[in-house]
UniProtKB/TrEMBL annotation:
It comes from Roseovarius atlanticus. Residues 207-284 form the Cation efflux protein cytoplasmic domain. The chain crosses the membrane at residues 7-29, 41-59, 75-93, 113-132, 153-174. This is Protein p34. GO terms for molecular function: cadmium ion transmembrane transporter activity; ferrous iron transmembrane transporter activity; zinc efflux antiporter activity. Residues 9-202 form the Cation efflux protein transmembrane domain. One of its GO terms (biological process) is intracellular zinc ion homeostasis. Keywords: Cell membrane, Membrane, Transmembrane, Transmembrane helix, Transport. InterPro entries: Cation_efflux, Cation_efflux_CTD, Cation_efflux_CTD_sf, Cation_efflux_TM, Cation_efflux_TMD_sf, CDF_Transporter.
Length: 296
């Protein structure tokens, strides 16, 4: 079992534990803000399950129906997570509205805050694990799940502040007001996750940093060739697709051209994790005098 899959499974257990703790905090206090916080945690569990399914599908090898693999399944999961974040925010706004119309004093607010604080600490730690390991494993689903948990941490912090201020001032209307403020922040975060995931589904090119690395490797490792042009890249989950045309002198043998391609591919795969490379070899009269000049 891969580390990515293990993390996805662990997220389900962590999400369920946090949901139980937050539900207890709401049950003790009757706080609208704490109820909203618990509602978002139900989304955490659902998105963790969606991420697990997507990662399992993305790990499947290429087949006759999907010759480029199943890597984009993780982007679908990330889009779903973004949509569910937005839905959670709308649910929170609904509860905040009703709480604003009929504010009530909270029961056992100190105990509720302490219990909710424990759940927040667990979420913060696990969000950091998911984002860092998701980036290391090139897993959009894990990164999206981690970012979602970060919004949950922000939500919990805002909720705690609202409940604390309501306790100090006696203005219990601050409880639903703070819930509404945090919901707006969650809406922004959810829309960002959706935008980033859709860019992956639309075959967005790799980052400028990665693209510069690819260009430098081609320029230095393709000795014996003349130039490379029509370089294209795209990323899909844990895979990065790179294709370009490589111009070689007209008298280059097939064997020598293949050796150049093998050398470039090996260097690219070493520098770019999950690289899938396609090189179209062309004779010298096809050069465009543009693109990447191969260094001698």
């Amino acid at each position: 079992m891969s580390s990515t899959l293990r993390l996805a499974i662990a997220s389900i257990f962590v999400g369920t534990l946090v949901l139980a703790i937050k539900t207890l905090a709401w049950w003790l206090t009757g706080s609208v803000a704490l109820l909203s916080d618990a509602l978002e945690s139900t989304v955490n569990v659902a998105t963790a399950i969606a991420a697990l399914i997507a990662i399992r599908i993305a790990a499947r090898p290429a087949d006759s129906s999907h010759p480029y693999g199943h890597h984009k399944a993780e982007f679908f999961s990330a889009v779903l997570e973004g949509v569910m974040i937005i839905i959670a925010a709308l649910l929170i706004l609904r509860e905040a509205y009703h709480g604003f119309l009929d504010p009530v004093a909270l029961d056992m607010p100190v105990e509720g805050l302490l219990i909710n604080g424990a759940a927040t600490a667990i979420n913060a730690l696990w969000a950091w694990v998911l984002v860092t390991r998701g980036r290391a494993n090139s897993s959009p689903a894990l990164v999206a799940d981690g970012r979602h948990l970060w919004t949950d941490v922000v939500t919990s912090a805002g909720v705690a502040l609202g409940v604390l201020l309501a306790m100090i001032t006696g203005w219990w209307v601050l409880d639903p007001i703070m819930a509404a403020v945090v919901a707006v922040n969650i809406l922004w975060s959810g829309s960002k996750v959706v935008r980033e995931s859709l860019s992956g589904l639309m075959d967005e090119a790799v980052s400028d940093e990665t693209l510069n690395t690819v260009r430098e490797i081609i320029a230095t490792e393709a000795g014996g060739a003349v130039e490379a042009h029509d370089l294209r890249t795209r990323h899909a989950g844990q895979a990065t697709f790179i294709d370009f045309h490589l111009v070689v002198p007209g008298d280059t043998t097939v064997f020598d051209a293949h050796e150049i391609c093998d050398r470039v591919e090996a260097a690219l795969k070493k520098a770019v994790e999950g690289a899938r490379i396609t090189i179209h070899v062309e004779p010298e009269h096809k050069q465009k005098h543009s693109g990447i000049v191969v260094l001698d």
